[in-house]
Automatic annotation (TrEMBL):
Gene3D superfamilies: Jelly Rolls (2.60.120.10)
Pfam families named in the record: Cupin_2 (PF07883)
Protein name: Cupin domain protein
All residue ranges annotated as the Cupin type-2 domain in the record: 52-121
Keywords: Metal-binding
Superkingdom, taxonomy of origin: Bacteria
Upper lineage: Bacteria, Pseudomonadati, Pseudomonadota, Betaproteobacteria, Neisseriales
Molecular function via GO: metal ion binding
Organism: Amantichitinum ursilacus
SUPFAM superfamilies referenced in this protein's UniProt entry, alphabetically: RmlC-like cupins
Length: 167
């Protein structure tokens, strides 16, 4: 491969079978091995990650995005998609489409006795509000003009008056 070809491959290609995985665990419900695939690439509007959820565990809390659209491709195993207060069976080969908005809170659960692996693809729209219906909290994120990231995670019932703390 030429030097230019190697440079292009580094910017454009990721193999999810070859990336280093991070173990993300919060007992007793959450246990996943995951890797973000986009960092270091030229992707600007898309994000991708590979996740492998342990048997009987979940990958993340039940949530709904208000800006980002997501797609999940089940690569291996079986499980359950919890979505809009329903539970749908999923299996290898299924492609799941989740639009932004509060109508489709979602969560993938490994309800089997074998690993559940899926590829997540999403837009990286910002600013973003993510709601967590089970815990009544929300996350606000944005990339600021200087490139830094703003993030605030709060319970919904902690409303303040607009003038609170102002002189």
């Amino acid at each position: 491969m030429t030097e230019r070809a190697a440079e292009l491959a580094q910017k454009l290609i990721r193999n999810f079978n070859e990336v280093a995985l991070d173990h993300d665990q919060r007992a007793p419900l959450y246990d996943t091995m995951c890797a973000r695939l986009g960092p270091g690439t030229v992707a600007r509007k898309l994000g991708a990650s590979i996740d492998t959820v342990a048997p009987g565990k979940m990958s993340c809390p039940y949530h709904a995005h208000h800006a980002q659209e997501e797609m999940f491709v089940i690569v291996q195993g079986t499980g359950t998609l919890r979505v809009a207060d329903e539970r749908l069976p999923v299996k290898a080969g299924d492609v799941i489409f989740i639009p932004p908005g509060p109508e489709y809170p979602h969560q993938l659960i490994n309800t089997s006795d074998a690993p559940l692996q899926y590829l997540s693809i999403s837009t990286r729209d910002t600013p973003e509000i993510v709601e967590y219906p089970d815990s009544d909290k929300f996350l606000a994120t944005a990339v600021l003009t200087d490139g830094t990231r703003f993030q605030a995670l709060q319970k919904r019932n902690r409303d303040l008056d607009y003038w609170d703390g102002e002189p």
